[in-house]
Design brief:
Length: 511
Amino acid sequence: MSEAESVPTGSHLVLFAYEAWGHARPLCNLAARLAQGAEGTTVTFLTTPAFYDRVNSELLRNFDADEPHPLDRIRVIALNNPGAHALDTEGLHEAFAEALEKLVKGLPLQCVHTGTTYNAVPRPKAVIIDAVRRLSGPDQPIKVFAWIAAAASIMFRMSAPERLGGIGDLLAKSAEEATLKQVEIAEAAGDIAYGTSGTVVNIPGLPPMYDYEIEPQTSMGGKALNGGLCLLTYQVLNACDGIIHASPECYEPGTIAALRQWMVETTRPLYCAGPMVALGTRAEDVEKQQSDNTAGIDDFLASTLSRYGERSLLYISFGTVYWPMEPEKIWAFLNAVLDLKIPFLISHASPYLNVPSGMADKVKQCGHGLLTKYTPQQHILHHPATGWFLTHCGHNSTIEAICAGVPMICWPFFFDQPLNSLHLTQNLGVAYELFNVRTGSGLRPVHRLGKAPEGTPDSVKEEAREVLSLAFGEDGKRKREKMQALQQKVLDARSKQGASTRDIQAFLGTL
């Protein structure tokens, strides 16, 4: 067991996200910006053993190559995580509570991944975390800020009062529903949050949709597990001392205005700090080092650019967790891509994916496709060969695509993903959404279409051909122009005088 040197400290901030890379990766960016933004600030970044190396690498991407000792004021400490999967968070939550208690008491803290014991530093002035009970109080004056690495629209829906357009008191409603139906409160919360009745939902800043469209795919976790997460979101956002949002305000201005109104009424601040993407000179090289197939990916991208030209590639990724629960639909989509001879690159990092041997052979033989386990996504999105991004519309992927100026084809699963898709397609006009890929309650009528999707593999293939023909045609060019205008707005928020930079400075000023 080794003991880390003491770090010179002024303000001390504790950051923590659960084992979901879409939440942890932008939090790394925030950690770096907080450490850079105020001299003497120490950041303790709590993570899991599985994410320890990735977090350190991602932190490094936010610094320039000529910055000496960039991570000296960021302490990365892994906590015990006994959960069986990313959504099994109870044990990790307990480990966080124990670690925070030690930090508050000024005690050393050991990293379970490296065995390093970190010396005590002054008690934290604020905690920034995905989900935690309110910690502020007369005996423990620590501010707790909710870290929102998701669309503001879903957070508003789950947590805001009914009179403003939210669900209202989700905890009370779930308890009542659970008693009536004789089910667990988490399952009742899932039914309420994701909807089954066909009620029209009007979220500020978004077109109307049916409640069941918030879960257009049969979820991997089930209603009880996902309902439990919704309850936690409700409790956090109603108890926290403020919100730090991983997006710039210009991405969802209508929803942010409504969310800000609610926060003002409760005398709490909202800081829009995004986009949370690495912009240091180390960013590209360090990201590429995290893939086992960087050389093969770079060769494929260079070959695609040479053979097919700029903006010719379709990049396909559903993140590190999600994959269609009816995989025959993704292969139907891919068959349309093959028929149209569109060059493509598929990332299949999800543990839920098994690529059929016949499909793998078909991709290998076609000469214009690549299947790979893990991809350096930001590098691919910024490559001149990349034209379109087929995505689940996870918030991190959505913002990364916008920052790269790459329009999207949307295949959302649940939570904020269908809301991002609705916003991108209907409000911003920078994307297409696939409807026949829906499953479960998602096969009920779609509000904006006025009809139900067919939902068969044949209908998926037909829809794919239509959408891809539009995307790589004149209509797609118009969407790309709109995306490039949005890209500039979002990147401007990160400038020295940008709105997001001002919000981060305002947050640091409160410490």
